[in-house]
User: Which sequence fits this backbone?
């Protein structure tokens, strides 16, 4: 499976994620970690924080609708695995994010910018694991 190179869309997406993280930190003093936001909405710890958490989750879900409204086309999406594999992958990622005390957005975007030692260890670990996984799946298993 070939990966399509989309530098402008990737740059725009990265800028918007960074802007969202900065606005959340400036506005509410909270870190933009997708896993933490979702878990805080599902496992309610503080009722007063529900509104912004739900707003962020809805924004993530409704983003393709906004893209459709602006461009007239839905984002292209191909998923070369079964729904069961997506569920298994989601559980593994959720377990890893819990074990690593955060996800790629929390550590990579917010943690590194705050020079968090934990994030300085976590992000290279994510990247190395991703590179090894892609290599094994594509070149060893032939996927």
Assistant:
């Amino acid at each position: 499976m070939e990966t399509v190179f989309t530098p402008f869309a990737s740059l725009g997406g990265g800028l918007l994620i960074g802007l969202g993280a900065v606005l959340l930190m400036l506005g509410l003093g909270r870190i933009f970690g997708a896993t933490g936001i979702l878990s805080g909405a599902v496992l309610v710890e503080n009722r007063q924080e529900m509104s912004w958490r739900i707003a962020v989750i809805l924004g993530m879900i409704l983003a393709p609708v906004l893209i459709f409204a602006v461009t007239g086309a839905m984002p292209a999406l191909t998923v070369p695995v079964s729904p069961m594999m997506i569920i298994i992958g989601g559980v593994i990622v959720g377990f890893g994010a819990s074990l690593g005390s955060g996800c790629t957005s929390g550590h990579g975007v917010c943690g590194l910018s705050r020079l968090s030692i934990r994030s300085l260890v976590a992000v290279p670990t994510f990247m190395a694991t991703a590179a090894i996984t892609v290599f094994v799946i594509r070149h060893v298993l032939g996927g």
Observations:
- The longest helix spans residues 117-140.
- The CA atoms of residues 52 and 58 lie 10 Å apart.
- The chain has a mean pLDDT of 87.
- The radius of gyration is 17 Å.
